[in-house]
Structure prediction request, 192 residues.
Amino acid sequence: MVQFDRRVGPEVQFDRAELDEMVQRWVDENKRCESLGDWKPLAEMYTEDATYGWNYGPKDDFMAVGRDEIRDLALGQEMDGLEGWEYPYQQFVIDDRSGDVIGFWKQVSERIRDDGTHYQVTGIGGSWFRYGGNFQWSWQRDFFDFGNVSSLFLEMITNNAMSDGMNARIERATSGRLPGWYPVGKAPVPLW
Prediction:
C-alpha cells in the first residue's frame, strides 16, 4: 500500500475561507508573474521547507527542495524560455480537511498557428498543492501529459514557431543533467 506524507492528521481542519483566499492570491500572483515573464516571485508563496516536483516521462523526475531551490530551479531555470506562455487555471478542487488543493490549468503559447489558433498543450495539466498556513504552500506536485507536451514542441520546431528562449531552453536541457533533475525514483524527496 502506498503511504502519503500527509503532514496533517485527521483532526486538523483548515478554514475554508482562508483556503479560498490562498487560491485567489495564487491565481492573482500567477497572472502578475506571467505578465512580467518572471515566475520567480511566486517563491514567496511557499514555506521555507516546501518541495516542488514533477515527473517527466519514464526516466526523469524533477524536484526542488526548499524555497530557494523552488525560486532558482522550478521557477527560474525550468521556466526560463517560457516567457509569453500562459497557464490559465480552469478549476480548483479544495479539501479543507487536509489542506490539499488541486488546480487544473492549460499551457498556452503566445505563438499562433497559420490557422489563427494558439499553440497549446492538449490534455490535462494541473498542480496538487498542500497548504502550509500563512498563505503559503508546503508542497506542490505538477502533472501533465508528457506525450502531448512532446508532440506540441515537435510541431512548433517543425513549423519554426519556437522563440529564441525556447530554443535555448531545449539546448540547455539536452546538454546534460541540469540541477534538480534526477533519474526516476532518485530525487532527495519522494515525488508521491
Remarks:
- The chain is about 30% helix and 30% strand.
- The longest helix spans residues 16-36.
